[in-house]
Amino acid sequence: MSPPSATSFTTDVVPQAPEDPLFGLMRAYRADQDPNKVDLGIGAYRDDNAKPWVLPVVKKADEVLRSDPDLNHEYAPIAGIPSFTSKAAELILGGADSPAIKEKRATSIQTISGTGAVHLGALFLSRFYPGTKKVYLSNPTWANHNQIFTNVGIPIAQYPYFSKETKGLDFEGMKSALLGAPDRSIILLHACAHNPTGVDPSLAQWKEIAAIMRQKSHFPFFDTAYQGFASGDLSKDNAAVRYFVEQGFELVVAQSFAKNFGLYGERAGCFHVVTSPAPDAENTITRIASQLAILQRSEISNPPLYGARIASTVMNDASLFAEWEDNLRTMSGRIISMRKALRSKLEELGTPGTWNHITDQIGMFSFTGLTEAQVLKIREDAHIYMTKNGRISMAGLNTKNVDYVAKAIDKVVREAQ
């Protein structure tokens, strides 16, 4: 029998997909041979020598695990390691005294980092949410949000978020869009250190957002990837989630431990569901947990162990937890110092425009306000790599390159005048 002459997967059936823009940027940076090249693209912490930093507390937790004679590599439960998921819930929901935890109306399931948590939440809502099956995403948002919700068949819409004029929050536009959305829509909210803009609502603004969502019966879907990394204060960075929980909202939270533990490749995350306070809340949350376990079983069966074990070891030991908080202050403090340095250098140079947004924004990323043409020009001329929308990873800046980056920004901005 002669072999088939043609594939079933022709170009019209399976077209060539575009390369992921961020990973394409990484590839281009690595191929660049210029000694002065600077990577401001990837969202991963780097120390002042532009090197990855393994948190000292992670090294200690690793030693604890390796010294445990009872350690094995058996399957984790479908819902994950209970010592990890319980502490993860306390961390984001407001402690062991959180009303959701005390009233037993929260359930948690370990996931493949924050991406897996968003996917599991989207999949759960696509199957079971009886309200308006449309998710509203901030404009802009983390690019992967669009694809995750589209993949599970939930239509996406946008609400205004970033103001190009002020380089801050378009709060009036956001509120107007939430008021105009159909009742019981799903609203995806970044809990802190908004990706990609670094612009967060104040607590007073969060309270206004909550009031509108209560009025419209919208469903909050929080994505939190930077708790403790944004401000250096775990409690400050979960203020929005904590407030919504205290107000009795039914909500879900996708939680990542990639950034705040430096466990990028270990894929440690958690997905939480909080149901509204009601006499049958405990029964409701039990049913929800059962369905989440079914979805998890059919997708990944059992979550990975190592990253969750590291995080669990730290979160369950008071001394290690305190050291983790100190490590978080180190990382966030360096980011804040780089924000101040970049702004200061640009203002010293008299770079056209205002640059206060560099220090007003928070977290790993900053929306510089550079245009796509300026981004491409700075890459060509100075070998500085950032995403086309002008977002930079502040972690890519250090005391050795911040002057160089500021001068390159100054040059492209002046040339555009």
Automatic annotation (TrEMBL):
CDD domains: AAT_like
Stored SUPFAM superfamilies: PLP-dependent transferases
EC number(s) per entry: 2.6.1.1
Co-factor requirement: pyridoxal 5'-phosphate
Aminotransferase class I/classII large domain location: 36-409
GO-annotated biological processes: aspartate biosynthetic process
Enzyme class, first EC level, given as a word: transferase
One annotated GO molecular function: pyridoxal phosphate binding
Chemical reaction(s) catalysed: L-aspartate + 2-oxoglutarate = oxaloacetate + L-glutamate
Gene3D superfamilies: Aspartate Aminotransferase, domain 1, Type I PLP-dependent aspartate aminotransferase-like (Major domain)
GO cellular component: cytosol
Keywords: Aminotransferase, Pyridoxal phosphate, Transferase
Keyword Transferase: yes
Subunit structure: Homodimer.
Other observations noted: In eukaryotes there are cytoplasmic, mitochondrial and chloroplastic isozymes.
Protein family: Belongs to the class-I pyridoxal-phosphate-dependent aminotransferase family.
Name of the protein this chain belongs to: Aspartate aminotransferase
Lineage, broadest ranks: Eukaryota, Fungi, Dikarya, Ascomycota, Pezizomycotina
